[in-house]
Amino acid sequence: MTLAGAASAGLYGVPRIVQIGHAAGRDAPGGGFEAPFSVDEKALVAVMAEGIIPKTDTPGAIGAGVPQFIEMIFADWFMADEQRQFRAGLGQMNDEARTRFGKDFVRLAASQQLALLTAWDAAAAKAGAPGSGAPQHPFARFKTLTVVGYYTSQIGQDTELQAQMDAGQDTADGPVSMGFPFRV
Fold first, then answer.
1. Is 95 left (phi over 0), alpha (psi -120 to 50) or beta?
2. Are the C-beta atoms of residues 93 and 118 closer than 8 Å to each other?
3. Quick one: which H or E segment has residue 155?
């Protein structure tokens, strides 16, 4: 199995072959890796993720385990500099909430949280535009992790996407034995 295969296998719940991250001692003295999320950071991650993908008639980010997914990526997959940047970005966004509304993000009214998430999304899109020259907004990576975490979760796959992993390949005209829709 390749490193990419081992990495993706770990993300989908299959036991990982390559052990990296805190579980493998990456945070040993002198390693430079960050400590796991604090209780406040866990709360911030959960509330922000739920703001991006809220509970509706289907479970939201919290129900799909997105906060735990983000925490796992932070602890086990980010390199030390990525961890520092991600943590600094969380702090930057929470500082903006305090500056703008006088409270931490998790203590804001839902309308205030939505206003910040919308503003950060716009800032991330603008910074990521070709030729902008602006550094990536920390919300860009956070939103990406939220979306990936949600749609690779069991809830995202089964409930939201209604994916059928083995649909039809055992039937005579299923997707595996179907002819190509073009000439080869």
1. alpha
2. no
3. helix 154-155
- List of residues 6+ apart from 148 with CB closer than 8 A: 69
Beta-carbon contacts of residue 136 (< 8 Å; ≥ 6 apart): 124, 127, 128
This prediction's pTM: 0.72
**SS3 (DSSP) at 135:** coil
pLDDT means per 10 residues in the chain (184 residues)?
A: 41 42 46 87 97 94 96 94 95 97 97 97 85 83 96 85 62 54 51
Output the DSSP codes for 103-128: S-GGGS-HHHHHHHHHHHHHHHHHHT
Distance between CA atoms of residues 63 and 80, nearest Å: 29
User: How far is it, in rounded angstroms, from Cα 1 to Cα 18?
Assistant: 10
DSSP 65-93: THHHHHHHHHHHTS-HHHHHHHHHHHHHH
Place of tokens 């890796």: 33
Cα(148)–Cα(3) distance, integer angstroms: 19
